[in-house]
């Protein structure tokens, strides 16, 4: 991820403009390249894994500060946790920082690699299998939770929903990875990496709605093995869900692939109450 002449930020300017803060002049950065950003302390915060840092943007989407520290390695997502920053590392470890960059706490992932979302009250964390790093291909029983709810110390509190077991079952990590967001009412939103779905669960894990966007490139079905290359066995899969953010305007924004590889991307804005897609923005690959 590069911050060359604001190119990365400007690539998502249209999405941010759709998310102007209520009663304020300015923009909120929703995503930076493939990563979710967080609005905390009057600024947007986004990860820059190539430079082991978190970057702050002001209301004009100008870089206005950075957090660099020994505990930041390859941050891939930032989510609000009250007035603090909940940072997901590529490894799936979680870091809780204040906006000065001080480390408040950290914890290891509840999955082989995890992605986290916090809530605005700073009392609840949701974890899913990371779409940024798919670990060893291991089958999972269909009783395994799809999502884990954690307390703010990183301890698992409960599991919600259940994984889907694909054929072959060794590709379960691909099928059950995805993006996650937490609503102020405790609702959990999930967008699978490889399936054309966006789902809402209430705080007890009961399905509320499922939305499909008509992604034609996902119609090929589950991931599949390709012919081996030496010791490597590559996997072919279509990219559907990449990142998700609840905007300050109350809408749910989902960053997804507009083609199989996810090279071209799109942002869909949904009504979180009903799952209705209100608008779609196609993003350039540059």
Features:
single chain; 286 residues; mainly beta; four-stranded antiparallel beta sheet; 24 strands; 5% helix; disordered N terminus
Please explain how this structure is put together:
The chain is mainly beta and about 290 residues long. The protein has 3 helices and 24 strands. The strands form 7 sheets. Strands 3-4-5-6 form a 4-stranded antiparallel sheet, with no helix packed on it. Strand 16 and strand 17 (about 200) form a beta hairpin. The longest helix has 5 residues, at about 5-10.
Could you list the spans in which at least 5 consecutive residues all have pLDDT below 50? 1-20
As laid out across the biggest beta sheet, the strand order is 3-4-5-6
Termini Cα gap: 12 Å
Helix/strand structural class: mainly beta
Helix count from the secondary structure assignment: 3
Largest sheet: number of strands, sense, barrel closure: 4 strands, antiparallel
Helix content: under 10%
State which percent range the strand residues make up: 35-45%
- In total, how many beta strands? 24
Q: Tell me, what's the shape?
A: globular
Short description:
The protein is mainly beta and 286 residues long. It has three helices and 24 strands. It is 5% helix and 40% strand.
Give the topology.
Blueprint: H1 7-11, H2 13-17, E1 31-32, E2 35-36, E3 38-40, E4 43-48, E5 53-57, E6 63-68, E7 75-81, E8 84-89, E9 94-97, E10 103-107, E11 114-118, E12 125-129, E13 147-150, E14 156-160, H3 172-176, E15 178-182, E16 188-192, E17 198-201, E18 207-211, E19 224-225, E20 235-236, E21 241-246, E22 252-257, E23 265-270, E24 277-283
